[in-house]
Amino acid sequence: MEILAGPAVSELPERHSVGIRVRTPFRGMFAVRDELMRELYAWLGEHGVEHGVTFFRLHVVDMNGTMEIETGVVTKAPVRGTGRIAAGVLPAGRYATMTYVGHGRRANGTLIDWVRAGDEALDVEENPAGDRFACRYEAYLTDPRAERMKTKWQIELAIRLRD
Protein backbone atom coordinates (compact mmCIF):
# COMPACT_ATOMS: atom_id res chain seq x y z
CA MET A 1 0.00 0.00 0.00
CA GLU A 2 1.24 3.47 -0.89
CA ILE A 3 -0.18 6.47 0.98
CA LEU A 4 -0.60 9.48 -1.34
CA ALA A 5 -2.15 11.91 1.19
CA GLY A 6 -2.94 11.90 4.90
CA PRO A 7 -3.91 10.61 7.28
CA ALA A 8 -5.64 13.87 8.18
CA VAL A 9 -8.84 15.28 9.64
CA SER A 10 -10.95 16.88 6.91
CA GLU A 11 -14.21 18.82 7.03
CA LEU A 12 -16.42 17.43 4.25
CA PRO A 13 -19.72 18.87 2.98
CA GLU A 14 -22.95 16.93 2.54
CA ARG A 15 -23.01 15.28 -0.88
CA HIS A 16 -26.04 13.87 -2.68
CA SER A 17 -25.75 10.36 -3.99
CA VAL A 18 -27.56 7.47 -5.57
CA GLY A 19 -26.67 3.85 -5.00
CA ILE A 20 -27.54 0.25 -4.23
CA ARG A 21 -27.41 -1.02 -0.63
CA VAL A 22 -27.24 -4.75 0.13
CA ARG A 23 -26.19 -7.26 2.79
CA THR A 24 -23.46 -9.73 1.91
CA PRO A 25 -20.84 -11.88 3.63
CA PHE A 26 -17.38 -10.31 3.94
CA ARG A 27 -15.92 -13.11 1.82
CA GLY A 28 -16.91 -12.30 -1.74
CA MET A 29 -17.93 -8.73 -0.88
CA PHE A 30 -15.79 -7.15 -3.60
CA ALA A 31 -17.28 -9.36 -6.31
CA VAL A 32 -20.69 -8.13 -5.11
CA ARG A 33 -19.38 -4.52 -5.24
CA ASP A 34 -18.22 -5.02 -8.83
CA GLU A 35 -21.60 -6.44 -9.88
CA LEU A 36 -23.40 -3.54 -8.17
CA MET A 37 -21.17 -1.06 -10.03
CA ARG A 38 -22.15 -2.61 -13.37
CA GLU A 39 -25.85 -2.45 -12.43
CA LEU A 40 -25.55 1.13 -11.18
CA TYR A 41 -23.60 2.37 -14.24
CA ALA A 42 -26.19 0.81 -16.54
CA TRP A 43 -29.01 2.55 -14.63
CA LEU A 44 -27.17 5.89 -14.68
CA GLY A 45 -26.69 5.59 -18.45
CA GLU A 46 -30.33 4.64 -19.06
CA HIS A 47 -31.52 7.63 -17.00
CA GLY A 48 -28.95 10.14 -18.25
CA VAL A 49 -27.71 10.94 -14.74
CA GLU A 50 -24.45 12.89 -14.58
CA HIS A 51 -22.35 11.93 -11.60
CA GLY A 52 -19.06 12.35 -9.83
CA VAL A 53 -16.93 9.74 -8.12
CA THR A 54 -18.02 6.20 -7.45
CA PHE A 55 -17.90 5.13 -3.81
CA PHE A 56 -18.08 1.95 -1.80
CA ARG A 57 -19.70 2.59 1.60
CA LEU A 58 -19.54 0.27 4.60
CA HIS A 59 -22.68 0.82 6.68
CA VAL A 60 -22.25 -2.22 8.95
CA VAL A 61 -18.97 -4.09 9.30
CA ASP A 62 -18.90 -7.68 10.56
CA MET A 63 -16.01 -9.45 8.88
CA ASN A 64 -17.11 -12.76 10.40
CA GLY A 65 -20.77 -12.32 9.48
CA THR A 66 -22.88 -10.11 7.27
CA MET A 67 -21.69 -6.77 5.93
CA GLU A 68 -24.11 -4.02 4.93
CA ILE A 69 -22.59 -2.23 1.96
CA GLU A 70 -23.53 0.35 -0.63
CA THR A 71 -22.11 1.02 -4.06
CA GLY A 72 -22.98 4.52 -5.21
CA VAL A 73 -22.01 7.69 -7.00
CA VAL A 74 -21.98 11.31 -5.90
CA THR A 75 -24.51 13.49 -7.77
CA LYS A 76 -24.78 17.28 -8.09
CA ALA A 77 -28.39 17.28 -6.86
CA PRO A 78 -30.86 14.78 -5.40
CA VAL A 79 -31.75 12.01 -7.86
CA ARG A 80 -34.89 9.91 -7.61
CA GLY A 81 -34.04 6.24 -7.74
CA THR A 82 -36.11 3.33 -9.04
CA GLY A 83 -36.11 -0.30 -7.97
CA ARG A 84 -32.91 -1.13 -6.09
CA ILE A 85 -31.39 2.26 -6.91
CA ALA A 86 -32.01 4.69 -4.02
CA ALA A 87 -31.20 8.34 -3.37
CA GLY A 88 -28.98 9.11 -0.40
CA VAL A 89 -26.38 11.43 1.05
CA LEU A 90 -22.85 11.26 2.32
CA PRO A 91 -23.32 13.38 5.46
CA ALA A 92 -21.32 16.50 6.24
CA GLY A 93 -18.87 16.39 9.09
CA ARG A 94 -15.35 15.86 10.26
CA TYR A 95 -13.71 12.81 8.73
CA ALA A 96 -10.45 10.96 9.10
CA THR A 97 -9.20 10.77 5.52
CA MET A 98 -6.37 9.16 3.63
CA THR A 99 -5.68 8.69 -0.09
CA TYR A 100 -3.85 5.53 -1.12
CA VAL A 101 -3.07 3.06 -3.87
CA GLY A 102 -2.99 -0.66 -3.16
CA HIS A 103 -4.25 -2.85 -0.35
CA GLY A 104 -7.58 -1.58 1.07
CA ARG A 105 -7.65 -3.70 4.22
CA ARG A 106 -4.21 -2.42 5.23
CA ALA A 107 -5.25 1.17 4.42
CA ASN A 108 -8.36 0.86 6.60
CA GLY A 109 -6.27 -0.52 9.46
CA THR A 110 -3.72 2.28 9.10
CA LEU A 111 -6.39 5.00 9.21
CA ILE A 112 -8.28 3.45 12.14
CA ASP A 113 -5.02 2.99 14.10
CA TRP A 114 -4.12 6.65 13.38
CA VAL A 115 -7.49 7.84 14.74
CA ARG A 116 -7.22 5.67 17.86
CA ALA A 117 -3.67 6.94 18.55
CA GLY A 118 -4.88 10.57 18.50
CA ASP A 119 -7.50 12.64 20.27
CA GLU A 120 -10.34 11.74 17.91
CA ALA A 121 -13.04 9.06 18.03
CA LEU A 122 -14.76 7.27 15.16
CA ASP A 123 -18.51 7.90 14.79
CA VAL A 124 -19.43 4.24 15.14
CA GLU A 125 -21.85 2.19 17.21
CA GLU A 126 -19.86 -0.91 18.15
CA ASN A 127 -21.91 -4.08 18.31
CA PRO A 128 -21.04 -7.81 18.28
CA ALA A 129 -23.48 -8.21 15.36
CA GLY A 130 -21.57 -5.61 13.35
CA ASP A 131 -20.18 -2.12 13.87
CA ARG A 132 -22.56 0.52 12.45
CA PHE A 133 -20.69 3.50 11.00
CA ALA A 134 -22.22 6.98 10.64
CA CYS A 135 -20.31 7.17 7.35
CA ARG A 136 -17.34 5.11 6.18
CA TYR A 137 -16.49 4.87 2.50
CA GLU A 138 -13.87 4.51 -0.19
CA ALA A 139 -14.21 7.02 -3.06
CA TYR A 140 -12.63 5.79 -6.27
CA LEU A 141 -10.64 8.75 -7.63
CA THR A 142 -9.63 6.50 -10.52
CA ASP A 143 -12.64 5.62 -12.68
CA PRO A 144 -13.10 1.84 -12.28
CA ARG A 145 -14.38 1.67 -15.88
CA ALA A 146 -11.13 3.17 -17.22
CA GLU A 147 -8.66 1.14 -15.12
CA ARG A 148 -9.42 -2.55 -14.57
CA MET A 149 -6.42 -3.15 -12.26
CA LYS A 150 -7.78 -2.39 -8.77
CA THR A 151 -4.24 -2.26 -7.40
CA LYS A 152 -3.67 0.88 -9.51
CA TRP A 153 -6.77 2.79 -8.34
CA GLN A 154 -6.28 5.96 -6.32
CA ILE A 155 -8.74 5.69 -3.45
CA GLU A 156 -9.82 8.24 -0.86
CA LEU A 157 -10.76 6.51 2.38
CA ALA A 158 -12.98 8.52 4.74
CA ILE A 159 -14.47 7.65 8.15
CA ARG A 160 -16.70 10.15 9.96
CA LEU A 161 -15.51 11.28 13.40
CA ARG A 162 -17.64 11.97 16.45
CA ASP A 163 -18.39 15.65 17.08
From TrEMBL:
It holds the Pfam family GyrI-like. SUPFAM superfamilies: Probable bacterial effector-binding domain (SSF55136). Residues 10-161 form the GyrI-like small molecule binding domain. This is GyrI-like small molecule binding domain-containing protein. It comes from Paractinoplanes deccanensis.
